[in-house]
# Entry
Amino acid sequence: MKGLNDILQKTRAASQSRTGPSWPRRRVPPPPSGSQAEPAGFAHVRLAVEDDSEAVARFFGEMPASAAGRGCERLRILALSGGGAGGAFGAGALVGLTRAGARPDFDMVTGVSTGALIAPFAFVGSAWDERLEDAYTGGLAAELLAITAVRPGASLYPSDRLTALVRSHIDAALLESVAEAHAAGRRLFIATANLDAQTTSIWDMGAIASVGGPEALQLFEDVLVASASLPGVFPPKMIKVVSGEDAFEEMHVDGGAISPLFVVPEPMILRRARDWAVGGVEVYALVNTTLHPSPKTTPVGALPVLVRSFELMLRSSYRSAVRSVAAFCEINGFEFRSACIPTDFTGMSMLRFDRSLMSRMFAEGAALAEAGRLWTRLE
# Structure
């Protein structure tokens, strides 16, 4: 693809100018347990899920109040899951909803892993559909993450590949749009897994965008890269933080390592959201993989057994996450809708970044949305 080498060279140069060689290297220690560490210049832009329940409620409680202030009769929430290359399905579904005139204006969007990469475009609205479609079907992902790019070591792919993919579609104009939506009272949350603390960090991306400038764009990109850094496939993302006058680094990976889908943090999942009485709440879970079993004979051998076992574990975790969100909605009387890649879709693989496959998944999501058959009940 023309321009690929330029993208990679600029990404490597920018990375090395900030931190030296990206990986491997001697790391800066993480902050001490219990310290209030934050990225320099970005106060109160994230929630650590181990925080007390009142802090959690305050972090999420501002958004429903602002929705009521905007005169919203109903609160609409979109949760985007992980799924690797399967994110093409979710991207297609959103574009298909736009084409059908059935895409809600979401008051809150959450994203994990590939869902984190979709989330900013879902948040800012259909005016960005062309860029969202290009991110998953334009060929850059297939070029950057082709099998020929695999370099086994600390991870299958070097760090600059995922960083270049994110940087090619996230820019100052998008950041400004996110900041404007945040100022209007809407919220965009992205989850990463903090390996050092072994907890989830939920980042308020609108608050980050509202700071503005190159530093905000850099942190915005870093969080997206971290959330999509599937362990073993991509190296962890190091995020610089400060506590008082001391500097530290935290190691973050794919938020799906803890939860592949979320609406609220785990401490709130079995609580009634009393502050969310807006007149009605609709929750949409867009799952970028298939949730149902795909029976077939497993060949005898270490690799096929390992792959099938990983697939089973992953699918089970996604089903559990969807059921947790469904339970939260049932407790609170919220309407719940979910969508996933159909079981009969052939060739699905979260690690197969093939342009033709991703285009087919995009088309599948778009077709279901345009036909009004996207959202279903979880059986």
In short: The chain has one domain: 36-377. Residues 302-332 form the longest helix (31 residues). The chain has twelve helices and nine strands. Strands lie at 46-48, 75-80, 108-112, 187-194, 199-204, 237-243, 246-254, 281-286, 335-339.
